[in-house]
Write a structure and sequence with these properties.
The protein is mainly alpha-helical and 278 residues long. 77% of the residues lie in helices and 0% in strands.
Length: 278
């Protein structure tokens, strides 16, 4: 902030109001989660987490994220490259489609796959005849998660690559570098921190997604229940300690994401701010 600019007299009151809202909406609920999870001691906290269903939910959550995040990273880089470097018919439509998951309910995102691959869907009869299972299976969870998290990487890279321009890449090509070498030696180093930032946000959303995966999972314990769905199952079964223990894992992952996000913003604020300039 410019030291010559004086804050208005009501600025401290506004700051206090903002901090109060954050405390009530974020800090307090987060504290309640950990307090409830540890209310009966650490041993009781670990007990539901060691249950086979909980371990299966954790493994499935990590598996879905491990598949969907790299897919969206590859898509995000390819889409950003095409949009930032080339002019083509339908470019505005492509940008609109990339942003569509932001404005679409996650439940609708899951319902799309049910309408396509469910038993009564467009391709459902063919899939059943060929013994291919997508709905109520890991593949359905991956598809739902990919759709919901589709914009995160692309939206971090597109404005950054537009701001950087293509001069360095053109120079590399002029000097005889191939397309892959140019991407690996010039493009990727220039976008690496924004790419990592987008991947971080995409991963956080992938692990915490509830609405889309709940539609396609069927909530089959030990098979198609991710960690957010497992929290709901435990809570509905009145296993409150287990539900809050599982929720604390998600909250912990969220805190780790926040720390890494803040670190990236601190160390590479210039590049990250450029990626969000528009």
């Amino acid at each position: 902030m410019n030291p010559g600019v004086r804050l208005p007299g009501f600025a401290p009151l506004m700051l206090l109001g903002a901090l109060t809202v954050l405390a009530l909406l974020i800090v307090l609920p987060l504290g309640v989660v950990f307090q409830q999870a540890l209310s009966q001691g650490f041993a009781r906290y670990l007990e539901p987490l060691a249950h086979p269903d909980s371990l299966a939910a954790i493994r499935l959550t990590l598996l879905v994220a491990a598949i969907s995040v790299p897919l969206n990273a590859v898509f995000g880089v390819a889409a950003a490259w095409a949009i930032a470097r080339f002019e083509f018919r339908g470019k505005s439509l492509l940008v609109t489609f990339i942003d569509l998951p932001f404005s679409m309910s996650p439940v609708v995102s899951g319902l799309v796959w049910v309408l396509l691959f469910g038993a009564q869907g467009w391709f459902g009869p063919w899939l059943m005849e060929n013994n291919v299972k997508i709905i109520f299976a890991t593949s359905g969870l991956v598809l739902a998660t990919v759709l919901v998290t589709l914009p995160f990487v692309a939206r971090e890279l597109i404005p950054l690559m537009q701001d950087q321009g293509a001069d360095e890449e053109a120079a590399a090509l002029t000097l005889g570098a191939g397309g892959w070498t140019t991407f690996r030696r010039v493009t990727l180093p220039n976008i690496r921190w924004a790419l990592l930032y987008g991947v971080l946000l995409c991963n956080a959303r992938a692990m915490g997604e509830f609405g889309a995966v709940s539609v396609v999972s069927g909530s089959i314990r030990g098979q198609t229940t991710t960690l957010p769905l497992h929290v709901e199952v435990l809570y509905n079964d009145y296993e409150f300690v287990g539900a809050f223990a599982a929720a604390s894992i998600l909250a912990g992952l969220g805190l780790v994401t926040l720390v890494l996000k803040s670190f990236l913003e601190w160390r590479h604020s210039g590049e990250l701010s450029a990626s969000r300039r528009h």
